[in-house]
Amino acid sequence: MYISIAHIKIPRVLLGTSPFIGAGQFERAYEYFQKFYLNPKEIEKLIKFSYSLGVKGIQALPFEPIPQVLAKVLKETPDLCVIPSVLKAYDIDLFQKFDAPLMFLHAGISNKKNKEELEELLDEIRDTGAIAGIATHKPYEVLTWIKENKIKVNAVLIPFNKAGIFMDVSPDKLIKLLRELNVIVFAKKTLGAGRLPVKESLEFVAKTEVIDGITIGVASEEEAKETFSLALSLFSKEIKKK
């Protein structure tokens, strides 16, 4: 259940952290904000529970209280793999301390399509020894731009689901583009922020064969059990990348 690149191993299934800040894509965003953002102990509890299920990686947003909670959790689970999205040099330095093997530039940077800014931050990520990638909310638009401008990107984090929710193109068209790119592909919003059925949605993503890993946010232990038991089964094969 790992992606292997040289000496680096990255879990294929990651715990997402968007629910922990009450991100706006969720219909229950305010409830999540109150439950997690205002009560970091609940974040810590769910990270540890997901880890106990076999989820050995977390896709970490750079916003507090997430880094603060991670610093505590890592004292008990030092092998938890932290894969952050970063907005600025401060974030890169912060997550370097967590030994992040892969960092994604946050969509807030990537979506602007500023070549100079993007390449500068990607180089700063590589200077830490981490794999450099980008996250985006507009996968087709931004990845096409990346390809046309020959920007060196080693990994992408994109919204991807059967219904095309939160995507800027149909799944089929995006699959075709992804096959042309030699990058590690992580999918987010695979369940459409809770709008899509778990089993059908995850099976669709796994069968595309262009998605190397997934990140899934959950808001309860019950959701974690249902979602990660299936996800870990579907993404159990080790993948080797150059």
Structure description:
It is globular, with a radius of gyration of 16 Å. With 242 residues, the protein is of the alpha/beta class. The chain has one domain: TIM Barrel (Alpha-Beta Barrel), CATH 3.20.20. α2 packs across α3 (66-76), α2 (40-53) runs parallel beside α10 (221-234) and α9 runs parallel beside α10. It has an eight-stranded parallel beta barrel, surrounded by four helices. The chain has helices at residues 29-37, 40-53, 66-76, 89-96, 107-110, 115-127, 139-148, 171-180, 198-207, 221-234; strands spanning 2-5, 8-11, 13-16, 57-60, 81-86, 102-105, 131-135, 155-159, 184-188, 213-216, 239-241. 43% of the residues lie in helices and 20% in strands.
- Work out the strand percent: 15-25%
Total E-strand runs = 11
Q: What are the secondary-structure elements, in order, as H or E? A: EEEHHEHEHEHHEHEHEHEHE
Individual helix count? 10
* Whole-number total of structural domains: 1
Mean pLDDT: 94
Gross morphology: globular
Q: Secondary-structure map with pairings?
A:
Layout: E1 2-5, E2 8-11, E3 13-16, H1 29-37, H2 40-53, E4 57-60, H3 66-76, E5 81-86, H4 89-96, E6 102-105, H5 107-110, H6 115-127, E7 131-135, H7 139-148, E8 155-159, H8 171-180, E9 184-188, H9 198-207, E10 213-216, H10 221-234, E11 239-241
Helix pairs in contact: 2-3, 2-10, 7-8, 9-10
